[in-house]
Amino acid sequence: MRKSRAKKRIILADPRFHDEMVTKFVNNMMLDGKKNLAFDIFYQAMDLIEKRTEEKGLDVFKSAIDNITPAVEVRSRRVGGATFQIPREVRPERKLSLAMKWMILFARKRNEKSMSEKLAGEIIAGSKEEGGAYKKKSDTHKMAAANKAFSHFRF
Q: Does 121 map to a domain?
């Protein structure tokens, strides 16, 4: 038997937009405990988005997160000596977490000068249903659709 479940931590809203999702995103983006630097990068990216798209940066960010959020994923399961990829629904907390991690991962891989420019580019691409993070989501959905025949193995 495992120990009791970990308690959910209270996440404070960020100082500029007063939104918890922004704080979660910045916490994922942060390296070596440098939270102020991560906030600066995020806010600079929001300013760049507002310049490039002429829309509110937070709205573009939220639409990008919605577009990148996966609905299904495949999980490995051994049945009778063979390993099957079984499609499953993604839990709501994990959906948001995956979307944020994918966005940060593909922003870091981009070829712009600063991290704020990379992040702004990936957020704009995500809101237009383009970019690496959106491709990752569509690949995940395709894999789940291809393995739909094994869905009867799940519990």
A: yes
Instruction: Please tell me the total count of domains within the chain.
Output: 1
Is the CA virtual torsion 31, 40, 132, 111 positive or negative? negative
* Residue 154 in this model has a pLDDT that exceeds 70: no
Q: What is the pLDDT of residues 90-117, one digit of tens each?
A: 998 899 999 999 999 999 999 999 999 9
Q: What is the CATH number of the domain that holds 68?
A: 1.10.455.10
Q: With a cut of 60, say whether residue 155 has pLDDT above it.
A: no
Domain span at residue 144?
21-26+34-153
CB 140 within 8 A of CB 74: yes
Taking every pair of C-alpha atoms in the chain, what is the biggest distance, in angstroms? 57
pLDDT above 80 (res 65): yes
Using CA atoms, how far residue 48 sits from 1, 43, 56, in Å, is 50, 9, 10
